[in-house]
Predict the structure of Benzyl alcohol O-benzoyltransferase.
Amino acid sequence: MSSSSSPSLKFTVRRCQPELVAPAEPTPRHVLPLSDIDDQDGLRFQIPFVQFYSNERSMAGKDPVNVIRLALAQTLVFYYPFAGRLRETTGRKLVVDCTGEGVMFIEADAAVTLEQFGDTLQPPFPCFQQLLYDVPGSEGVTDSPLLLFQVTRLMCGGFVLAIRLNHTMSDGAGMKLFMNALAEMARGAREPSVPPVWRRELLMSRDPPRITCIHREMEQVPDTNEGYFTTSFEDNMVLRSFFFGPIEIAALRRMVPHHFRNCSTFDIITACIWRCRTKALEINARDDVRLMVIVNARGRFNPPLPVGYYGNAFAYPSAVTTAGELCENPFGYVVELVNKVKGEVTEEYMHSVADLFVTKGRCLFTTVRSLIVSDLRHFNLRGIDFGWGKALYGGVAKAGAGPFLGAIYYMSHTNAKGEEGRVIPIWLPGKAMNKFAYELDDLLGRNQNQLWTGPSVKMSTLYAEAFP
């Protein structure tokens, strides 16, 4: 069996001093409020993305650092709010002070080649803290740069682009718009093919606010499972990636009843992970468990939100059942729960949840016995081309949503065998991770641990590694 990338790989990264990249031209100076979807508690964190690119002969003599830095300055002319800083006002309302200060940028070189990462690129990535350096003092939600870029040249001529995004500014769809514009500028365009649209007032609360829908994703419930996977970073947490290709998907689809065979691949993979994870965590059979599915609401408005809208425009409706019902019912029961919950998001639902955030102090989603699932495949982050072709890997750098580790992301991926599928990074306590892998293989009728094709890393290793 061919090897995978491993956190045991160590290498040195030499970084230049962080700098601020400002818009290439003067931009408006004013204050813009975020929407009431943007500034909820659950989005007040930084989310890391990473893109790996190989050497491209046609780009010989061109430096990816300079190309991306110049393109970034040009892109910020159009996406100028990113060059500002967030401020918190009355009622914890977040606004962007469009100061034009710029985004943070780091130039770096690493003594490593792409080949040394192994035959598949997926989270966890070795020495990732060196590929995306958290500049001290820059991590805050307010009064800090809204984007951090690090471009790291590799010895083989390839490079790594790592990005840290303040999630209150954009969701996956919005980030893709920005990255597409950046790539277009890098390839010589003078303006984005899709003009950015701010229009955050479209997702402001109503006056007066009125909660008209049921939002079980926002219920505050007691944690009755002592020792259960908490929302804090703990030393025993392990990160692994799991690959779902044609073989795994076919095995799961055979378990779905005939009358429900038109369900999506997302539905069956999500049902599989939710069940296996619940078993692995050994949750009391009588306790409620909660699945929240990220649903892009752009097309659920009438008329739809503007094409260039790059703010957060999603909800995460919740399916709730007991751990016993989830684990003991036929697999089709779980698939149907997933399928049904996706349809709950409407224009009225979005207005209702915005009203809820204003009414209840921009509250946090339910974290107890919860799993959040976000499908990023449709944004094709691998397809972002700065002139060096498509990325070998493009997507989030790890699972989790800030301090809440129970969030997972689906990304398009090609495994070492050349099979197209989805790679899904997951955080779990070490003991639960082993049980999860066992339950997954059991559900698929495979030997233990055969599905896991990626490395794992302990939380203590990931967050305590010293920088040179």
